[in-house]
Design a protein that fits this description.
It is a single chain. The protein is an alpha+beta fold. It contains 3 helices and 9 strands. The chain is rod-shaped, with a radius of gyration of 39 Å.
Length: 192
Amino acid sequence: MDTTFKQGTLSVWYDEQGYGFIVDPNGERTFVHVTTFGRIPRRPVVGDTIFYTTAIDRDGKIYADYAWIEGLPAPRRRSHFRQHRKKSRPWGLTDVVLLLTVILLFLVAGWLLTATFAGDTITTTVTQTSAKRPGPPECVIKGNISIDTGEKIYHLPGMKDYEITRISEEHGERWFCTEQEAIQAGWRRAGR
C-alpha cells in the first residue's frame, strides 16, 4: 500500500457499475471503485479532480484504495485491518502452536477444576460419613466383609463403591483410621 497522496483526473466513470479510472499527470491509469470514496454527497463524474493513495491487488494490478473528490470532504480513512479483513491466509506454524496452547490451557483448567471439586467431594464425604457413624472423625476407612466370599476389603473415601458400602458392626465389619491399621487387621484394599 502506497500512502503517498497522488492527484489525478477521473477520465472514465461507469456509474451503474460503480467504477472508473483516474489518470495522473504522467498519463498512468488507476482503477477506482465507488466504495473507495466512502460516504460522499454525490457520485463521481468524469473530469473530477481526485486525490488518492494506491495499493496492489492479488493479481499485481494497482488500484486506488483511498480517494476523495476535490471540493468534497475527505472520507474517514478505514483502518488497514478493516480494509483487508476478508482476505484469508493459510494457517502457519505459529497459528497451530497458539491453537494447541489454548486447547492445552483449557484441558489443564478443566482438570484443575475437576480435581478441586473432587477434593471438595471427598471432604464432604468424610464430613458426612463421620457425622453418621460413631467414633473419631478421622476414622473414615470402611472395613467391609464380602457376602459372597467372606473376604475382608477396605474402601477409602473417593473410591468407586465407597458411598454404597454400608458397615454392619454386628457382622464383624468395622471402621479404620489408617490403611496400615486395616492391613494389620487382615483387610485388603478394594480394587476400585
